[in-house]
């Protein structure tokens, strides 16, 4: 195949105007939307090649998730819903850093290195969030796919987890579900309705939810779910798109600012579910009778879910484990290992690392504290559960229904919410009962800007600094002075900054620790 058409379209419609090196990071390429057109086009080209390379459908999602409206981004989805393979992240980086004329030789290089048969058909699924720039950028992706002779299917505005779902379903021949948006809503809501068939209330559990759609696609997705879910839950949707995407609301705002989202009435003792701009993260929060704010993040969700599944798998000889990152609150790790006896593994930040580590268990629950996560079941686990369910084992029957509520292909805010609701309902818990399971250690996150964040390198799942020399020693010394102190620093994979995390026995101490460590980095 020759790539003269790819070069022509690049030069005429998507010329590159920057020379600064750009890297495919943890979240793909992400920046201000007006600098992304040539990148989108090239990711279309790459998706066309990757589809041929894997003889499968590849997904391209256009979103900047929880970031502000002027930003956008692009991520490729591999055949089974996974994040793009590392070797192809390198190809993505090479392709984006080529000149317009250099596209041809960059593509040829990828074809020869990956031994791609370019005569094969290529099909790419494209989805986008609600950002005003997403439509234009979607056209650029499609132009790229077309310029390498590929075909595309445009799913329009969808959540990130929906795109992962349809890609997976299409590639496994429909075993996981029907590869359509409707198929996704129906599978998950049908399973949830079934779990609720015995009634919607139980003990302290009340099926009332205030839903914060972050003014994005999560609001659309929830109203679609509600159409399918009849009366299983009593959800009121706020931040439907009348305000600015992710602005003072949504999962990232609630988690980072530790504040109730604007646009949602301050009803006491009712849980609020906040999702992010592409609906792959979820954070719960509530106000008590005094109006005091409480947040239940990915750690709270992970421990709730892992504890419940651990009970259901008893007797099935399956190994269940939880994967967290260094950001997991120390109290959550202590609770889940010491109280519930669930083994915990720690992975580097980024979904692909957690997902990969979760595969080592028969049932792997993985969650980032920011609310991104899911549960994955190995083939062995599925078979064991189905066999036991057919033999009328009660827990296994329940587990097999719970399985269909979960979107295993990636973290999915709404599917995760339905899973949390399932566990709370089963336990007869109110949101404060859930919150009382353990108390988070006070913590603080900070960011500092340094000349070159790449000078900081880490090991041990980012918990220890390797370079610059001496930094880890200094951190150790600082931490020693704090009761229950823990702190680490890592270069961000998505912004040009260094992140600092600190926890200690009081908020004041955690703040103080974070500041001292930040000073050591700066
Ligand atoms: C990306 C990651 C997310 C991670 C975040 C960390 C994926 C799909 N997303 O959004 O998992 O928590 O980056 O950002 O992997 P940071 O490196 O800037 O802290
Ligand atoms: Zn997101």
Automatic annotation (TrEMBL):
Domain Phosphoacetylglucosamine mutase AMG1, residue spans: 179-283, 297-429
Annotated metabolic or biological route of this protein: Nucleotide-sugar biosynthesis; UDP-N-acetyl-alpha-D-glucosamine biosynthesis; N-acetyl-alpha-D-glucosamine 1-phosphate from alpha-D-glucosamine 6-phosphate (route I): step 2/2
Coiled coil: none
Reaction(s) this enzyme catalyzes, per UniProt: N-acetyl-alpha-D-glucosamine 1-phosphate = N-acetyl-D-glucosamine 6-phosphate
Pfam families linked: AMG1_II, AMG1_III, PGM_PMM_I, PGM_PMM_IV
SUPFAM superfamilies from the UniProt entry: Phosphoglucomutase, C-terminal domain (SSF55957), Phosphoglucomutase, first 3 domains (SSF53738)
Molecular function terms from GO: magnesium ion binding; phosphoacetylglucosamine mutase activity
NAD found in the keyword field: no
UniProt domain Alpha-D-phosphohexomutase alpha/beta/alpha: residue ranges: 53-95, 99-170
Record: residues binding substrate: 368-370, 490-494, 499
Domain of life: Eukaryota
Residues forming the catalytic site: 65
Cofactor note text: Binds 1 Mg(2+) ion per subunit.
UniProt keyword terms in alphabetical order: Carbohydrate metabolism, Cell wall biogenesis/degradation, Isomerase, Magnesium, Metal-binding, Phosphoprotein
Domain Alpha-D-phosphohexomutase C-terminal span(s) in chain numbering: 474-518
Family that this chain belongs to: Belongs to the phosphohexose mutase family.
PANTHER family in the record: PHOSPHOACETYLGLUCOSAMINE MUTASE
Official protein name in the record: Phosphoacetylglucosamine mutase
Designated gene of the protein: PGM3-L
């Amino acid at each position: 195949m020759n790539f003269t058409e790819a070069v022509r379209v690049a030069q005429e419609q998507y010329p590159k105007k920057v020379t600064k090196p750009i890297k495919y990071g943890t979240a793909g390429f992400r920046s201000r939307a007006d600098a992304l057109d040539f990148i989108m086009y090239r990711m279309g080209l790459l998706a066309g090649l990757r589809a041929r390379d894997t003889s499968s459908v590849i997904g391209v999602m256009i979103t900047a998730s929880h970031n502000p409206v002027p930003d956008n981004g692009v991520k490729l989805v591999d055949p089974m819903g996974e994040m793009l393979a590392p070797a192809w992240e390198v190809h993505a980086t090479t392709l984006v850093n080529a000149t317009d004329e250099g596209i041809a030789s960059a593509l040829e290089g990828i074809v020869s290195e990956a031994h791609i048969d370019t005569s094969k058909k290529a099909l790419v699924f494209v989805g986008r969030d609600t950002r005003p720039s997403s439509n234009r950028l979607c056209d650029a992706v499609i132009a790229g796919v077309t310029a390498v002779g590929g075909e595309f299917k445009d799913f329009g505005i969808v959540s990130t987890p929906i795109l992962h779902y349809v890609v997976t379903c299409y590639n496994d021949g429909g075993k996981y579900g029907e590869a359509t948006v409707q198929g996704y809503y129906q599978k998950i809501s049908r399973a949830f309705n079934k779990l609720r068939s015995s009634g919607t209330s139980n003990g302290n559990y009340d099926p009332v939810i205030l839903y914060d759609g972050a003014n994005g696609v999560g609001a659309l997705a929830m109203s679609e779910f509600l159409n399918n879910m009849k009366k299983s839950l009593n959800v009121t949707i706020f931040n439907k798109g009348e305000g600015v995407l992710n602005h003072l609301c949504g999962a990232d705002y609630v988690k980072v600012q530790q504040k109730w989202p604007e646009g949602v009435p301050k009803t006491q003792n009712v849980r609020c579910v906040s999702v992010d701009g592409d609906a792959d993260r979820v954070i719960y929060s509530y106000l008590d009778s005094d109006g005091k704010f409480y947040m239940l993040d990915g750690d709270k969700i992970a421990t709730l879910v892992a504890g419940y599944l651990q009970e259901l798998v008893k007797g099935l000889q399956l190994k269940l484990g939880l994967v967290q990152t260094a950001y997991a609150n120390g109290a959550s790790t202590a609770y889940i290992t010491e109280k519930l006896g669930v083994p915990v593994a720690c992975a580097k930040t980024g979904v692909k690392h957690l997902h990969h580590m979760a595969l080592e268990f028969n049932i792997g629950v993985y969650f980032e504290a920011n609310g991104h996560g899911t549960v994955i079941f190995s083939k062995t686990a599925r078979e064991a559960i189905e066999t036991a369910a057919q033999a009328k084992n009660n827990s296994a029957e329940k587990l097999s229904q719970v399985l269909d509520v979960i979107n295993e292909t990636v973290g999915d805010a709404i599917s995760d919410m339905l899973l949390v609701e399932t566990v709370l309902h089963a336990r007869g818990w109110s949101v404060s009962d859930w919150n009382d399971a353990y108390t988070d250690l006070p913590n603080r996150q900070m960011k500092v800007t340094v000349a070159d964040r790449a000078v900081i390198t880490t090991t041990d799942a980012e918990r220890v600094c390797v370079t610059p020399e001496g930094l880890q020693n200094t951190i150790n010394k600082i931490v020693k002075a704090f009761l229950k102190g823990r702190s680490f620093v890592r270069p961000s994979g998505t912004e040009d900054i260094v992140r600092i995390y600190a926890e200690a026995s009081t908020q004041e101490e955690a703040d103080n620790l974070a500041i001292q460590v930040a000073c050591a980095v700066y």
